[in-house]
Amino acid sequence: MTTEAPPRTRSSTSSSQGQWRASPADGFLRVAFHMISSMSFHPRTGALPIVALSLFALSSHMAAQQPPAAAAPAAAATAPAEALPPPAHVEQTMQLGGKALKYTATVEAMPVYGADNKKIGEVVCTSYTIDGPDRPVTFALNGGPGASSVYLNFGAIGPKRVPFGDEGDSPSDSAALSDNPGTWLDFTDLVFIDPIGTGFSRSLVAADQTKREFYSTENDIHYLSRIVYDWLLKNQRLRSRKYLVGERATAATACRG
């Protein structure tokens, strides 16, 4: 498995411009979920049993009049996944040590290709970079199974911080975004990577193939190291000093890589 289709030739902050194509059943479930999630239920004693009984009788009558349903095809085609948005960039500023620190924030999806050069997944990366000579770049991943890099980003070393709650806080309190005095951005560029199955990163293949391709330590090393390489190549940073930071299982995986 490689993460790039030879020869050399995705982001997750805005809605896709592509058109969703799905099966009728999928469309029905989406509409049903929307209706249920937005519905206000007002029980009316007496009326509900009558309506339910009427609907049952009507559906039974209609079913008796309908010819037998045609047999379903042996294997239904998998609906294509909705495309992730193109890379998004924004110039931002934070205050650090009494000085303004200007940087570029980028969110993008990096493709993962299988052995047959077909795209099988997309890994979303959030990067913070500052123009300047000889700046190192640090790649950050979270360590727990199923955990994205959001905690390292907004709770540890990113330029902005979101309090994840202290004892006594209300769960309904609004999240307050603030400058992070502990950020590493003043001495290294930062790239936060969400492995497949975390954050907005996703597999584009069936569940059994997803498990084979992505959900093991060896495959983590293989496709994520290629994501690092692709980011460095795309941003012309192959000669930069490179560091890897993570917590818990990430350290063990990095040592094996």
Describe this structure in a few short sentences.
By secondary structure, this protein is an alpha+beta fold.
Descriptive notes:
By secondary structure, the chain is an alpha+beta fold. The chain has a domain at 88-166 and 173-256: 3-Layer(aba) Sandwich (Rossmann fold), CATH 3.40.50.1820. The radius of gyration is 24 Å and the shape is globular. The strands form two sheets. Strands 1, 2, 3, 4, 7, 8 and 9 form a seven-stranded mixed sheet that branches. It has a two-stranded antiparallel ribbon with strand order 5-6. Mean pLDDT is 75; it is low at 1-66 and 72-77. The chain contains six helices and nine strands, in the order H-H-E-E-E-E-H-E-E-E-E-H-H-E-H. Strand 1 and strand 2 form a beta hairpin.
